[in-house]
Amino acid sequence: MKQSTRSLGELLRVGVVGVGHLGKEHARIVSGLAGARLVGVADPNRAQAEAVAAKCGCLAFDNPTELFGLVDAVVVATPTRFHHQVAMEALGRGLPVLVEKPITPSAHEARELEQAAARANVPLQVGHIERFNPAYEAARQTGLVPRYLRAERAGKFTGRSLDVGVVLDLMIHDLDLVLDWDSSPVTSVEAMGVAVLGGHEDMAQVRLRFASGLVADLTACRVSHEPVRRMQVMGSEGSVRIDFAAKTVEVVQPSQAITSGKLDATRLTPLALQALQQDIMTTHLERVQWTCNSQEDQLTRELIDFTQSVRMGKSPRVTGTAGRQVVELAERILAAMGEHCWTGKTDGPHGPHGLPAPRGLLLPDTRRAAA
Ligand SMILES: NC(=O)c1ccc[n+]([C@@H]2O[C@H](COP(=O)([O-])OP(=O)(O)OC[C@H]3O[C@@H](n4cnc5c(N)ncnc54)[C@H](O)[C@@H]3O)[C@@H](O)[C@H]2O)c1
């Protein structure tokens, strides 16, 4: 991969395209990043571009084309439906790109970006930020071979990212992590989802089976009362529970007596069974909790990975290929979800918009008043 032509003593000139909720954070971080200089931001919302540029001390553009002529690398944080168009233009000019997740709404567009990056011989990185979560990194380093995995990701309604459904918006983070942890092919996909607010699905429930034997159950919701970002992974070696928001990992380590199959509770004397009940959680299922902190926040670490990849001409941690593979899996999930039949009859209502009409209110006015 081509190294940046900037010498090590020179600052890498970076531009950020799309400076809404997340793009303005990219701009803020790049403006303070060692070895980089934020040259400008571009956003069709001129007032937004100017406000962010004023805060970060850089130029403002309402169109990225002019900005592309002034920089060595580009961050794309537009709504997902514009990722392909903006990133293609940047890559076409030979500029390395960090594009927010999901790489594109379709695998077909993602493949085009991958090919454009290969032609230009520059890094293409995707913003799957949870890969930089220190809790995930710590869990990943335990050596656990996943046999069963369960992930839940729920957020309050933000009114953003409505150009895609919850699978491409939130579940995509966990799909990326599962593919990172188990690279064997996905052999079957079961999915159901509900479009609560019209448009795309807002809730999704998915079961994946892998050639390795791993079974993964994933839940995502973007109209939740309680935000949750958790994953539990189990295998012969034990289990880990990751809380992505709290950045904690809980490891349960089974004793040798358990892993070797020597402990058989059904054959113990009543006295021994009583003793086991007392010490099972300490002696046989020891639990350790870690709080995982890193010097920099996840977005900063992702941007450092990007600028270093550009400078050294190396592959970033989350490549365009990884981004495309996860969108391919999301497409299979959405296809399965579209076929989910709500009444058990193949000619019955299907898919995220097919949930049968309710029989009545769960909380009639009288009950609501009583509560
Ligand atoms: N990695 C994460 O955890 C994470 C979190 C939030 C959002 N995202 C991703 O970041 C992207 C942006 O999300 P957001 O929540 O910041 O959205 P947003 O709507 O707050 O911001 C998008 C910005 O892009 C601008 N824009 C629209 N079309 C444009 C174009 N053609 N060129 C340049 N700018 C354009 C808009 O004016 C707006 O300011 C999405 O792809 C989303 O999935 C990722």
Describe the fold and architecture.
It is a single chain. The protein is α/β, with parallel strands linked by helices and 371 residues long. It folds into two domains: 12-128 and 298-329, NAD(P)-binding Rossmann-like Domain (Rossmann fold, 3-Layer(aba) Sandwich), CATH 3.40.50; 134-291, 2-Layer Sandwich (Dihydrodipicolinate Reductase, domain 2), CATH 3.30.360.10. Helix content is 36%, strand content 23%. The chain is built from twelve helices and 14 strands. It has an eight-stranded mixed beta sheet with strand order 8-9-10-7-11-12-13-14. It has a six-stranded parallel beta sheet with strand order 3-2-1-4-5-6, sandwiched between helices. The protein is globular and about 80 Å long. The chain binds nicotinamide-adenine-dinucleotide. Nicotinamide-adenine-dinucleotide (NAD) is lined by residues 17-23, 42-45, 48, 64, 77-80, 82, 86, 100-101, 127, 129, 160-161.
